[in-house]
Amino acid sequence: MIALVDCNSFYASCEQVFRPDLWGKPVVVLSNNDGCIIAANREAKALTDIAMFEPVFKIKKQLIDNKVTLFSSNYTLYGELSQRVMNTLYLFSPRVEVYSIDESFVDLHGFEHKNLKHYGNFIKETIFRNTGIPTGVGIAPTKVLAKLANKIAKKGPEHDHVFVIDSDAQRIEVLKNTEIKGIWGIGRQHAKKLQEVGIYTAYQFTEMPLAWVRKEMTVVGERLWRELRGEPCMDMIDIPKPKKGIGTAKSFGHKLESLDLIEEACSYYISEVAEVLRAQKSCAMYLQVFLNTSSFSVNDKQYRNKQTVTLAIPTNNTFTLITEARKILKAIYKPGYRYKKVGVNLTGIIPEAYVQGNLFESPKTEKHKELMQLFDTLNYKYGKGKVFSGLTGTRMKEWELVKADRSPRFTTQWSEILKI
Amino acid sequence: MKLSTIGKLARKQHRHTAGVSEQTGFPSPATHYLEPTIDLHQELITNADATFFVRIESDKYAHLKIYNNAVLIIDRSTPAIKGKLALVIIEGEFSIIKVPVRQGGSEAHKTFTLWGVINYVINKAT
Q1: Is B93 strand, coil or helix?
Q2: What residue spans define the domains of chain B?
Q3: List of residues 6+ apart from A199 with CB closer than 8 A
Q4: Which residue of A13, A225, A336, B24 sits 20 to 30 Å from the alpha carbon of B5, by its own alpha carbon?
Q5: Mutation for testing the A interface, residue in B2, B5, B53 having most A CBs under 10 Å
Q6: What's the CATH architecture for B43-122?
Q7: What is the ipTM of this complex?
Q8: What is the CA radius of gyration of chain B?
Q9: B94 to chain A nearest CA, in Å?
Q10: Residue in B8, B93, B115 nearest the CB of A83
Q11: What residues in chain A have their Cβ under 8 A from chain B's Cβ atoms?
């Protein structure tokens, strides 16, 4: 059996752990730059007359009128609490697959003799007690079914956030009540195709002949079909795969015109992604930089451009990458526009150990590597961005994202711990 | 110490390094006796994933020997046994009480919700 443990409105729950005055009240979390709502708790979702997907500035008055508390996103806090939740899951099984920041698969093979409903409850209650984060638990023979069980656990109040599919009769009942488009892994195209041939529920799908499924939906559809029938086809992946591409792009707090500030923001993003590369011990072969104006703005002239270069030698060295990125930026930048966003993407990721020199250059020397290691050690120990390349500059305030209502980083900074 | 914070689940590990003199290459006589330096975390924290720090910014709790500027070490996984200090919520606000006999209400503290049991109070020595 496999459990899917999923945190309830995770970002909002993280904020509420430290704000008991907001328990039971509507809370929303805003995207980077406070542009739109990316998370809302149950109480906020219940306010159906507010168009939550609209830009925040359009609905701000309604939000305030309804006493909704707004938070800028605080990923430092969410990431740290996520680690606590995931670590706690290891108390229940040695195999945990972290699927996203707020959900994990927990392998319960060998636990079948237990009362799984009780075990699920125990998981849920322990996580809440230890971390303050509420979760829902779905338990079933396969991952796809566990995902479905989790959905049901959250819906019906009678389930108390835990639902187990442990008999064939129950599996069939669940599938009969599941729309085809509600299945994890069935995209809009496939859902449409299935509905055209008269398949509306998950159960009908599992009753189709395998040959048809394979023909129409390839091996991906076949796996879903088998998983829904209770036959596990998706393995637990407990070691995260190194990423194939790493990138970051954030809007500026204000629109920028001058090249030098954009360069500094770009250098900062490079430092961030280079750090990720080094942490997973890999190097990138290609670097892409792109620059945009805001397509929402009707008054501004529009311009967007991007360029990719092949690095002479694959690298994860912040300084090399910044130098290359600035060359690209100089090439694509045009004066006279009000820019909204710069972004960088690193692709062609290979393990550090495989990097080869070429005829004219050898891979960066040990000295460079040591410097980067020192960089990372210091920034780990003293906080992000304590040591940085001079090219990043110190005018972050002028381009940084607006995060007006960010909560304190309660669990990572002594100066910001909970105060009473 | 592990640098990676990406997908990080492993806890920090202490590393023994044998002391070798860079000048002479001779091992230090302490080589086989090196141990990690004392780390307060080991003594004060048993369940890191359930432990939170809170700073006190008033003299309200002086009667519990918790003074202004003290740091509380709260372990949410510690059972709330009668008489233990605990951070609780009373009417939507944080407060500190001694856990009474029966949880959920005594006359003195109306109804409270437990946030976490306080395992240590770090007061600055005067």
Answers
A1: strand
A2: 43-122
A3: A180, A205, A208
A4: A13
A5: B5
A6: Ribbon (2.10)
A7: 0.77
A8: 21
A9: 7
A10: B8
A11: 20-21, 23, 79, 83-84, 86-88, 90, 96, 98, 126, 129-132, 240, 276, 278-280, 376-377, 380, 410-411, 414, 417-420
